[in-house]
Amino acid sequence: MAPHQLNPDNWVEQYADYLFNFAVARVSDAEIAKDLVQETFFAGLKSAKNYKGDAAERTWLIAILKRKVIDHYRKINSNKGKAEVRMNYSSSSDSEGDWLEEQVADPFSKLENSPIENEELGMAIQECISKLPKKQALVFKMKTIQGISTEDICNELGINPSNLWVMIHRSRTALMGCLNENWF
């Protein structure tokens, strides 16, 4: 198979909307999403010489955008001094839904590694999950906590992947609001 080629002149026309929708689904703020897409295009231009052509152009840009989203959350979370967001992504496919966000304690902070702090955070998370609508809570636990595949969840609950990701997004938004109000 011939290696893929970069064509930066067409990025905005071909990928801006897709990347924006991808970003806004993860940061829930249109202005931040626009900034992240711009940063992605800029980083792509800067690192174009490192592009090997193994992945499709869109896949490569999405990988850059994912790192920008991670950096965004690290920045805002390090300002709070509470958590870091990590994303794990299976680059073996182009499909959305193979990545997982986890919120974990900062390994360099003594406060967050305290068993009491972790227990309190765990109780706060469980309390916030219990406030979600039942189906949202179930989907969130299955995908984010248990790590069940998108396909298996959709088959088990009789929903499509779009419904699943809407529920996951709403759950994350509600949980972050709840945790900001009751924990941070």
Automatic annotation (TrEMBL):
Ranges for domain RNA polymerase sigma factor 70 region 4 type: 123-175
InterPro entries according to UniProt: RNA_pol_sigma-70-like, RNA_pol_sigma-70_dom, RNA_pol_sigma70_r2, RNA_pol_sigma70_r4_t2, RNA_pol_sigma_r2, RNA_pol_sigma_r3/r4-like, WH-like_DNA-bd_sf
KW Ribonucleoprotein (keyword) present: no
GO biological process, one term: DNA-templated transcription initiation
Gene Ontology molecular function: DNA binding; sigma factor activity
The keyword tRNA processing is annotated on this UniProt entry: no
This protein's UniProt keywords: DNA-binding, Sigma factor, Transcription, Transcription regulation
Residues annotated as domain RNA polymerase sigma-70 region: 12-75
Record NCBIfam families: sigma70-ECF
Family from the record: Belongs to the sigma-70 factor family. ECF subfamily.
Name used for this protein in its record: Sigma-70 family RNA polymerase sigma factor
Organism: Maribacter algarum (ex Zhang et al. 2020)
Lineage: Bacteria, Pseudomonadati, Bacteroidota, Flavobacteriia, Flavobacteriales
